[in-house]
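Hey, sorry to bother you again with one of my protein questions. There's a protein on my desk that I can't quite get my head around. No rush at all, and the record is pasted right below.
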Amino acid sequence: MRANFSSTWLWRVVALVALTACVDSHPAGKPFTTIDDNNCVGCHQADYDNTTNPAHAGLYPTTCADCHVSTAWRPAIAQGHPEARFAIATGAHQGVACRTCHKPELGSSTAGANTDCISCHVQAESDPRHVGIADYQYRPTVRNFCLTCHPAGTAEGGAHPEARFPIAAGAHRLACATCHNAALGPSTAGQNTSCTGCHTGTHSQTLMNTTHRTVSGYAWSTTNQHFCLQCHPRGRN
């Protein structure tokens, strides 16, 4: 009886120690960043080895916190980063852990929907860098608002070249994203400018064809959205 009691007591002590270790690793209400993400496999090696959707063993790192939150396995960060759109293998964001920028609690990582830029790029840093930038506004409630003007996570060349194309005065006092379409490429030298995306109505193709009927070499382009700049580099007649 004594031996049986002793073994039962010992088992309970071991179980209690193990449970205490788990609680210490996942303290209630404590920020995820206080957990050592390099020690997950100490308890979750079997989960890692047996996961099949997608398979993890030998394919993903064992630092589970790169992609998972501490409260549940799901939601998790989608894998396969779009390097051509936003590089993390090189450049300023090289070596940054996925969970540093992507917060599963904010939703899906598809198209950067759960990206949190302002955890690192705080207002005290961002405001001085954007002095003179038209329509810049720090938006703490939209944690990835930076992507509107920095879709690739890189600087876009500073203040707008007012001498070349004024937007602080005149007809083009507009938000950057009204004219610059990030899907068309970088903003440098107006490469991603979309004139025809805005100039409808009085600037529709039909009316512009009529207005330019005597202009030599004029041709409306359906592939180059900023062909207007060839003859109107400053946005004027």
